[in-house]
Specification:
InterPro entries: Prot-tyrosine_phosphatase-like, PTP-NADK. By secondary structure, this protein is of the alpha/beta class. It has a domain of 147 residues: Protein-Tyrosine Phosphatase, Chain A. 46% of the residues lie in helices and 9% in strands. Strand 1 and strand 2 form a beta hairpin. The chain is globular, with a radius of gyration of 18 Å. The chain starts with 8 loop residues before the first helix and ends with a helix.
Length: 221
Amino acid sequence: MTQFDLTTFFGRLKAYLDYLWTDHAWLRLGFMNDHWVSDELVRANQPWPFQLKLWKKRGIKTVINLRGGFDTSTHALERDACERLGMTMVDFVVTSREVPSRARVLGARQMFDTIEYPALIHCKSGADRAGIMSVLYAHFRLGQPIREAMAQLSPKYLHVKAGLTGVLDYVFERYLAEGEPKGQSFLQWVESDAYDPVAIKKDFRANWWGTLLTEKLARRE
């Protein structure tokens, strides 16, 4: 249950002030980090309610939220905006420093097969979680090879491979090194015993400067 009551003027004001500072929303007033992955899916950072209205006018029907924090002002304002605009909001929580579980990968595949398009997918910055989900979308929905789909994890989208968020790239690199040479599809590899999220994360090594950038300077979520 959210602590923000959007049914009153002061409750809504409280939510916006919290959203503005706690979630660093002021940084996103004029910058959405938006990029079309295909003609039916656009990736972006956390949208303001007024930006969702603009996306609605551009035909977006489904908004996929990759963040947690269901009791935050961010989630309350986004859900309220989607309800008012008649957009479907889907919560699909992904982390930026963990190897996704097998269930999460398979769940992403199912979600991309069942949602109504056009859709917008977002995390906070639009760089890491939006990146790995765009890779999965490009592979499962568009049929792109993993090597090609990995372009969605790029500095172009503000993704930092050298930091702890580089574990997302490492997942696909492990597949290309272990699964692809054996003739396995990415899905077959994920469904096999070789896909061990705990072991894969343990083997990953981030660079010190990348970690400094993502954890101390940018303070990525």
